[in-house]
């Protein structure tokens, strides 16, 4: 079992990666449609940030990609409930989201709720 402070830092790093413009944007409809190249870039960021015990890279990579997908879904859900459903914009909290991305995300969520 890993130390709690390490696992918390790992999860926090995953959340940070998901929210950065460099990696993902809210217009991506769901995790399976994220290009493998982007998923690999996220893994590379994580693997450069953490020192992994010898022989654990494949296992940690599998876990990281699973957590990235869950975090992506949770982030999009949060954008929907905290902003779209309340008629607000996320620009103050998520400055990397462009107005065009936001318009498309709102359109996607509004069409689903009709």
What does this structure look like?
With 114 residues, this protein is mostly helical. The chain has one domain (4-112). The protein has helices at 4-19, 36-49, 57-84, 99-112. Helix 1 packs across helix 3 and helix 2 packs across helix 3. The mean pLDDT is 87.
Please write out the topology:
Elements: H1 4-19, H2 36-49, H3 57-84, H4 99-112
Helix pairs in contact: 1-3, 2-3
Fraction in helix: 55-70%
Roughly what fraction of the amino acids lie in strands? Answer: under 5%
Main sheet properties: none
Poorly predicted regions are: none
Dominant shape: elongated
Compute the number of strand runs: 0
Features:
114 residues, 63% helix, elongated, mainly alpha, single chain
Task: Report a brief summary of the structure.
By secondary structure, the chain is mainly α. It is 63% helix and 0% strand. The longest helix has 28 residues, at 57-84.
């Amino acid at each position: 079992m890993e130390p709690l402070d390490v696992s918390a830092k790992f999860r926090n790093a995953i959340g940070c990666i998901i929210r950065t413009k460099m990696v993902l944007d809210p217009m991506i409809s769901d995790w399976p449609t994220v290009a493998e190249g982007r998923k690999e870039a996220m893994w590379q960021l994580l693997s450069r940030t953490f020192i992994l015990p010898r022989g654990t890279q494949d296992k940690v990579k599998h876990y990281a990609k699973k957590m990235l997908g869950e975090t992506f879904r949770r982030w999009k859900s949060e954008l929907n409930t905290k902003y779209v459903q309340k008629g607000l914009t996320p620009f103050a909290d998520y400055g990397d989201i462009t107005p065009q991305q936001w318009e498309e995300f709102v359109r996607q969520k509004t069409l689903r709720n009709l």
